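Re: the 490-residue chain
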Amino acid sequence: MMSDVIKEIANAVGEENISWELADLYVYGGDASIHHSMPDVVVRPRGVEDVQVVIKIAYERNLPVTVRGSGTSLSGNAVPMRGGIVLDMKSMNRIKEINTRDMYAVVEPGVINDDLNAMLAEQGFFFPPTPASGKVATIGGMIGNNASGMRAGKYGATRDALLQVKVVLPNGDLATFGTKNLKNSSGYHLEKLFVGSEGTLGVIVEATIKIAPLPSKRGVILASYSSVYDAGRAVGDILHNRYLPSAIEIMDSVCIRAVNTAMGVGLPECDAILLVEVDGREESVQRDAMEIAEICRRNGAIDVKFTVDKNEMEKLWKGRRGVLPSLSRLEGGIVSTSLADDMNVPLSKIPEAIKRFQDVARKYGIIVGTYGHAGTGNLHTKVLFNPARKENWEKIRRAMAEIYGAVHELGGTTSGEHGIGISKAPFFVEEKRGTGTIEIMKIIKNALDRKGIMNPGKLCWAPEDFVMATRLRYPVDKNNFEEEMSNEEG
């Protein structure tokens, strides 16, 4: 059947826009997560019509469809769990309109975040969501995962910026939801339904997003702490005192050491640091920075520095953005894995959450680096271990259950910005158990995608016997490892 499907798609979109070569299938079988599962064919649509043709073929043949941007997902969102078709949307990368008077931009899903911001900056504007992967992250992927980044506390996440979206529905029909107006109180806000949907409800082919004026000045405070608990406490105190920085980032000692080792950034060697960005007019930046610096000192900061120098600020942000790759170079034989890496907790619970993460790390004898967007309670915990050893995965699986158990006990949620995908599916289902959320999600999914072809096996549609170590991209030394773990879980 697939050979017939491939011929039909090739005739519709052109052979140059389709591939079933083994090497391509292998590459498109993975993203930045721990998972891997190969598709049967990769299609690179050039426009809306191509997307509609492919989706209609998939609908008629009951074939799974996985939509992909740049593949930066850390949760397996873009991994084709059940094979089928991968739609690579990067060729649909036109910035169709920038309207600074009405404060919006119209873009195709394959537009890169930083490319859009470079063009907006020429006119004194920017698109506020700031994912660390902004050099490669696509707007379509950002919508699918409700990406945000360090400036979400002041400017909001992608959901807050989405005004209108055009979507190819699972039956191939084209629909438009929302409006280009900055305010809209007309009926159900169906455009928001596709934010965080991870490609399970349709294919985004165009988006109208809200833009904002660039601040005239930015400055960064670097506060060093001998206790990560004190650093976490300072975050809540800054906000409690009615300051709203454009970013508050936290890095623990593991992350600091990794960045200094791999990148030579020269961050202070201490238990934790805070990077606090303030923006606005120059006089307010200077005033707020001095007062926030005093709050940091009152909460135990052992050193506080402030800079408005662009090169120095970029050096600090380069170090922060480099945490993820740097962790894999911290020690030989171990790598950084994205497992329990994207939880959100109430601001007042940040100190306790970090302490409990450290307790779990000590209990299981593992290395956990904690960092993230502390200004919104969004924490990332990267687990460092040798992924080739079966016994390590068994230990890590138990540790992750305890970490997410702590998050939920503290009133937190499973994902703050990376989405659920595969890795966090069981923890998401556990968090929402008894709330009615999963039941309503399934009703919506069945109404729009009654054949279940859109990105199956993600969110709350993971198999009942799913375990964290399913479909690994690592060459684990195992004998039917996944089957054994599934049976044990069952």
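Confidence is low (pLDDT under 50) at residues 483-490.
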